[in-house]
Amino acid sequence: MIIFPAIDLRGGKCVRLTEGRFDQETIFSEYPADMARRWQNEGAEYLHVVDLDGALAGGSRNLSVVRDIVAAVAIPVQLGGGIRTLENIEQVLSAGVARVILGSVAVRNPQLVTEACRLYGDRIVVGIDARDGQVAVDGWGISGGVNAGELAVRMAAAGVKRIIYTDISRDGTLSGVNVAATVELAEKAGIPVIASGGVSSIKDIVDLVAVSDKGIEGVIVGKAIYTGALSLSEAIRTARKDVV
Predict the structure, then answer these.
(1) 68: closest CA among 17, 29, 121, 123?
(2) Of 46, 62, 86, 96, which alpha carbon lies 20 to 30 A from 69's?
(3) DSSP secondary structure string, the chain?
């Protein structure tokens, strides 16, 4: 199982939000590329980057910072946040990003997801962000009017090879991962799922490793590693089943 350290970008800085709320922001670094190097040095195999400004604007807004991050590390980077056109996807991939995460567009324009998968294969990931099982879109501010499980099944049928599932109510709260909902989504979709939202301690990593055979491919960790509640290197060792 892969541990993905999260780097959330807003105004060119590395920040964390609580429950996706832009009025509850904590700045952790003025230099996101330095943070990327830190996580790589602590053993990260893959970075998860979110352009929060892009999520609100409906198009990438921090690509210069993303390029800095890509140049700073030797590990792959996946990027999400407001990417809703084929042109934007191409722009992101040209910046050196390994995988593009599509979110709101999966609800608004599923045909685009199908076409993106045809063009770019497994470099396309769909992020399903839900509150109480209902998908949220446009920076998590609006209900998408669809159940998370239903959307997951549709995206798998569209050719998507993996899904990132975020329980918004737990994101940035250090309240624990919603393991049951994540497993349920993976079983419904029949494709690998990366868990996100609420990681608080090594117990969450242990709990996810225990169900990794049910389609849980990895987990995104954010606030816990920034506050010191979780050691990234310990989480990685645990995820590799070296310490369980």
Answers:
(1) 29
(2) 86
(3) -EEEEEEEEETTEEEEEETTEEEEEEEEES-HHHHHHHHHHTT-S-EEEEEHHHHHHTS---HHHHHHHHHH-SS-EEEESS--SHHHHHHHHHTT-SEEEE-HHHHH-HHHHHHHHHHHGGGEEEEEEEETTEEEETTTTEEEEEEHHHHHHHHHHTT---EEEEEGGGTTTTS---HHHHHHHHHHH-S-EEEES---SHHHHHHHHHTGGGTEEEEEE-HHHHHTSS-HHHHHHHHTTS--
Distant-in-sequence, close-in-space partners of 132: CB < 8 Å, separation ≥ 6: 169
Q: Looking at 8, 53, 171, 204, which residue is catalytic?
A: 8
Model confidence pLDDT, tens digit, residues 15-54: 988 877 888 889 999 999 999 999 999 999 999 999 999 9
Which residue in 53, 129, 167, 171 is the catalytic one?
Answer: 129
Is the entire prediction scored with pTM above 0.90? yes
Give the position of tokens 């393991």. Answer: 179
CA distance 107 to 35: 32
List, for residues 92-104, the tens digit of each pLDDT value.
999 999 999 999 9
Arithmetic mean of pLDDT, 160-181: 90
Separation of first and last alpha carbons in the chain: 12
> pLDDT at position 139, please?
65
Adjacent-strand bridge partners of 71: none
Maximum alpha-carbon separation in the chain: 44
The full set of domains in the chain, from first to last, is 2-239 (3.20.20.70)
